[in-house]
Write a structure and sequence with these properties.
heterodimer, A: 233 residues, mainly alpha, MetI-like fold, 10 helices, B: 362 residues, alpha+beta, Rossmann fold, OB fold (Dihydrolipoamide Acetyltransferase, E2P), 2 domains, 9 helices
């Protein structure tokens, strides 16, 4: 009889892939998230509500639709994918594509969390930094960014958790290639399609629950720490 | 230091149209709330870009709308102490202080960290976060932080407005100390005349966005036409004097001023130290001949120059008499007394000063 608690090499691969995809999806989308949040809170420009809607689209569209749109845009023959492929950048059927899909799906959550933090910043503190000789770049690095940190942490954890659970957009955009695009959710789904796969599916489910709980605990702890640091912000 | 400001700026229905120059060590911008004082210092600091105007500090043009010059705030080297402190909540007191020094150009630094910590009494607060400070402590840190940027001019926008009376007094003492310890010119915004009298040498009176008058504090406060702006209740003369000698036997200090000698309760000060005294109009009585057998120590002979009835209540019981005793002095007497004594401009009288408030000790 098979050991119920030991992950097979293939299952490990799915776990590792999931972590890698979620990590990169979150890390790469962070600077964009900060930039878009600042843009939405601090500036007025033509098409602002369009940008806002675009950012929130993955939250309301069925994930499969989002995945299909990504495929149309960034697939090998896609609108953007084709010229990119000529430059040697390919997302379709690669783990980078899975990370992209996860990043897009988590982006609205990321932006919303950062946005709340940016809105809460007292802009008069930035003026004060300016009178002390800090130029706009330094003001951003020494005042704006540190005060946005609670939102950035919260947003990053939300985005990471969303990436760990992402299924629809990933399978639509990059399919399920073991070791390349078959993340845990995709692997679980696939295992349930084949006879005798439930044991492996259950094991992956346990790992998935454990990682989610860990992320949740981590986010609570970080939020408390940041909250203490910025109690008077 | 020289500061020259000439700006026109519209803010909604309000127009700021201000022109003044100041060269004193401490220049006070005085006016009611909403007179445009904060907007004015925001223009000097570079936080507001006015529609038209010029701001020149020490021969450097910071703003000139005609020539399209606008030096951004971080290159002006103008310190700013805000009403609400504005300490960085994510930094400790020490880091807040260092933040000020960090961006100051090396060759322009003239303020030492240790000296600021000592002068402003911050040594025991350095490791705290701003949320663990009292209102007064927060303002002291804010002042220290602005100083450490080695500014060529320090703006203070009602730094005591949000403090209670005890704290206000405490911070005033600290501001007096820094005025002596660091040779930094200060522009001090206030709507409290007692602060202005204690700190400032030059006064700029602001009324509805315009400068009503500029000049030495003593001079403007003795002018009758400015009464509606300087405030009637505390009306009186402000006189610059010097410590002359001390009468140890009776615990009195003699102060010399152009009108003679004032005898006041003992002051700790070497002969020659300048002090500023305020003599309230209601503390001065008038007599036609020099009274004898009287407890009042300070009696000065002078001439009546002006009689002022309350514009809002011309038939009221009291009026103010302006005298020339070498310097201007005000006496508040009843209309009845003025009538009985025949008080009129040109009349020789003796002014009896009952008590003297020392507004600016050493």
């Amino acid at each position: 009889m098979e050991d119920w608690l030991t992950l097979s090499p293939a299952e490990w691969t799915a776990v590792r892939l999931s972590l890698r995809v979620a990590f990169w999806a979150t890390l790469v989308s962070l600077p964009f998230g900060v930039a878009v949040a600042l843009l939405l809170v601090r500036t007025e420009f033509w098409g602002k509500s369009f940008l806002n809607a675009l950012v929130h689209l993955p939250l309301i569209l069925p994930p499969v639709v989002t995945g299909y749109i990504l495929l149309l845009l960034l697939g090998r023959n896609g609108l953007i994918g084709k010229p990119l492929a000529e430059l040697g950048v390919v997302f379709a059927f690669r783990w980078t594509g899975a990370a992209l899909a996860c990043g897009v799906m988590g982006f609205p959550l990321l932006v919303r969390a950062i946005r709340l933090s940016v809105e809460a910043i007292d802009r008069r503190l930035e003026d004060a930094a300016g009178t002390l000789g800090a130029n706009p770049g330094w003001i951003f690095l020494t005042v704006t960014l540190p005060l946005t940190l609670p939102g950035i942490i919260a947003g990053a954890i939300l985005s990471f958790a969303r990436s760990m659970g992402e299924f629809g957009a990933t399978i639509t955009f990059v399919s399920n290639i073991p070791g390349e695009t078959a993340t845990m959710s995709v692997a679980i789904f696939t295992l349930l399609q084949v006879p005798g796969g439930d044991a492996a599916a259950l094991r992956l489910t346990i790992v998935s629950v454990a990682i989610s709980l860990l992320a949740l605990a981590l986010s609570e702890w970080m939020a408390r720490r940041a909250g203490r640091r910025l109690a008077d912000a | 230091m020289s500061l020259s400001v000439d700006i026109q700026h519209r803010l909604g229905a309000f127009t700021l149209d201000t022109r003044f120059t100041a060269a004193g060590r401490v220049t006070a911008l005085f006016g009611r709330s909403g007179a445009g004082k904060t907007s004015l210092v925001n223009v000097i600091a570079g936080l507001i870009r006015p529609e038209h105007g010029r701001v020149v500090v020490d021969d450097e043009t910071l703003l000139d709308s005609e020539r399209g010059i606008f030096v951004p705030k971080h290159r002006r080297r103008i310190g700013y102490v805000f009403q609400e402190g504005r300490l960085f909540p994510h930094l400790t007191v020490r880091q807040n202080l260092r933040y000020g020094a960090w961006f100051a150009p090396r060759e322009a630094r003239y303020v030492e960290y240790d000296r600021v910590v000592e002068t402003m009494g911050l040594a025991h607060l350095l490791d705290r976060k701003p949320d663990k400070l009292s209102g007064g402590e927060r303002q002291r840190v804010a002042i220290g932080r602005a100083l450490l940027a080695s500014p060529r001019l320090l703006l203070m926008d009602e730094p005591l407005a949000q403090l209670d009376a005890t704290r206000r007094h405490e911070i005033l003492t600290f501001i007096e100390r820094l005025r002596e310890a660091f040779a930094v010119p200060i522009v001090y915004v206030s709507h409290a005349m007692d602060e202005v009298i204690r700190l400032a040498d030059t006064l700029v009176l602001i009324d509805s966005g315009k400068v009503a008058a500029t000049g030495p504090v003593e001079e403007l406060l003795s002018r009758l036409d400015l009464r509606p702006l300087t405030g009637r209740y505390e009306a009186g003369a402000v006189i610059a004097a010097r410590v002359a000698s001390t009468d140890d036997a009776f615990g009195l200090t003699h102060l010399e001023f152009p009108g003679g000698t004032l005898r006041v309760s003992r002051l700790d000060g070497q002969p020659g130290t300048p002090v500023r005294v305020r003599i309230r109009a209601r503390d001065v009585s008038l007599a036609l001949s020099r009274p004898s057998d009287i407890s009042v120590l300070n009696i000065f002979e002078g001439t009546v120059t002006e009689i002022a009835t309350d514009a809002e209540d011309p038939t009221g019981a009291q009026l103010d008499v302006r005298l020339d005793i070498g310097v201007p002095l005000w006496a508040r007497i009843t209309r009845r007394s003025a009538h009985d004594l025949g008080i009129a401009p040109g009349r020789r009288v003796h002014a009896l000063v009952k008590s003297v408030a020392i507004d600016r000790p050493i």
